[in-house]
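Query structure, 375 tokens:
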């Protein structure tokens, strides 16, 4: 039977569309059972290839045939223990944040090393953002390379900071929220309160086309209501104000707009703050999801302990397992991510367990089964 590609596409149609807000719990289970054998084999084939880097073994196929879906938790448990999984997770994290290799004498492998270490040491997946160390190619703990008085997981590396360096530190803030909170600007104000207008430099106070025109702005790039997005951006970008374009921590950074360089740049390879007050502009402390953060390290702790982080990891696991691009994975329904994230025990969030729980989750299988069944 030719099921793989077609059914994988269908899965996502199903995950995406769900049952139009009705939730998943009331889906009849009988439907799953009817297609059990076919759906489970196809599903298992995809997962063994992504997580264990190999096809199903004869023994695994026999187990699946005999036990159907009931065999999956056991198989998944074994796959995430295989050495390939640590490398697969590493590669996925590197892809998510666009770091790998070496250039300009900077080790772009530090984020990947940490990701791999988290798997081999069976640490919580949140350590991606909260690790207060970096990891060498040999898998040893080492200090990070930014010279900052703190570390902040994969984000606190020159690799991340250089890969996303840019005006107002917007790229750094945007990539972090996209990869680890699965949110984009503007985001819910319940999640991220806005910085008050009067605290921002005048360009970002603009909240209507009329104000934009009055300010002589032609609607910069993303429309004219700058305040809508940049009132939240301001908070996250501020955590990066002390890092220059080489990813190095510069205590003397002022966050002030350069007089000679383009909009958004500070002097000496640094970037401007959104804040208008000079003292505030130079201060890297900020607000993440309504909590005060003294610096990037604290900000990342807040992000990693917010429920959006695990929900986002659920989505990233699905995207990894089925090779979804960001456009497809952005359509995975919020309630699906929430249901699955809530099933994860807080004290049991190693990468291995997150993958196992997400991919063996009943809702995941049901969605997959519906996809295989659809004409
Ligand atoms: C819908 C949300 C949104 C609105 C509205 C918006 N921006 Fe942005 N802005 C973004 C995003 C997203 C980025 C890209 C960040 C990145 O580099 O990943 C960005 C980037 C920028 C940059 C940096 C560009 C660069 O080359 O690095 C500037 C400057 C900027 N915005 C100014 C403005 C101004 C001024 C306005 C109002 C006229 C505005 N933005 C309105 C979301 C928005």
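Result returned for the query:
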């Amino acid at each position: 039977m030719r099921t793989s590609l077609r059914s994988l596409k269908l899965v996502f149609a199903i995950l995406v569309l769900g049952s139009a807000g009705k939730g998943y719990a009331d889906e009849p289970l009988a439907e799953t059972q009817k297609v059990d054998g076919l759906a489970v084999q196809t599903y298992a084939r995809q997962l063994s290839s992504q997580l264990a880097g190999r096809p199903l073994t004869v023994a695994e196929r026999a187990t699946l045939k005999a036990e159907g879906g009931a065999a999956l938790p056991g198989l998944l448990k074994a796959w995430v223990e295989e050495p390939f999984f640590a490398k697969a997770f590493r590669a996925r994290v590197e892809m998510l944040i666009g770091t790998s290799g070496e250039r300009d004498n900077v080790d772009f492998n530090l984020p990947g090393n940490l990701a791999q270490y988290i798997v081999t040491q069976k640490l919580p997946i949140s350590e991606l953002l909260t690790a207060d160390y970096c990891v060498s190619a040999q898998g040893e703990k080492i200090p990070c390379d930014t010279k900052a008085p703190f570390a902040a997981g994969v984000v606190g590396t020159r690799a991340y900071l250089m890969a996303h360096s840019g005006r107002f530190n917007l790229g750094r803030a945007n990539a972090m929220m996209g990869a680890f909170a699965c949110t984009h600007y503007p985001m819910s104000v319940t999640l991220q309160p806005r910085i008050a207008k009067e605290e921002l430099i005048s360009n970002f106070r603009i909240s209507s086309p009329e104000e934009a025109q009055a300010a002589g702005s032609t609607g910069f790039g993303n429309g004219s209501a700058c305040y809508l997005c940049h009132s939240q951006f301001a908070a996250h970008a501020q955590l990066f104000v002390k890092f220059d374009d080489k990813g190095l921590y510069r205590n003397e950074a002022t966050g002030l707009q350069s007089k000679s360089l383009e909009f958004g740049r500070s002097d000496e390879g640094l970037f401007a703050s959104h804040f208008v007050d000079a003292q505030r502009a130079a201060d890297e402390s900020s607000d993440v999801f309504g909590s005060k953060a003294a610096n990037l390290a604290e900000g990342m702790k807040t992000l990693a302990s917010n429920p959006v982080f695990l929900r986002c990891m659920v989505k990233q696991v699905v995207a990894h397992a089925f090779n979804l691009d960001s456009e497809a994975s952005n359509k995975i329904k919020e309630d699906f991510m929430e249901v699955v994230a809530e099933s994860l025990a807080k004290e049991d969030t190693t990468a291995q367990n997150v993958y196992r729980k997400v991919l063996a989750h009943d809702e995941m299988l049901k969605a997959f089964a519906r996809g295989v069944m659809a004409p």
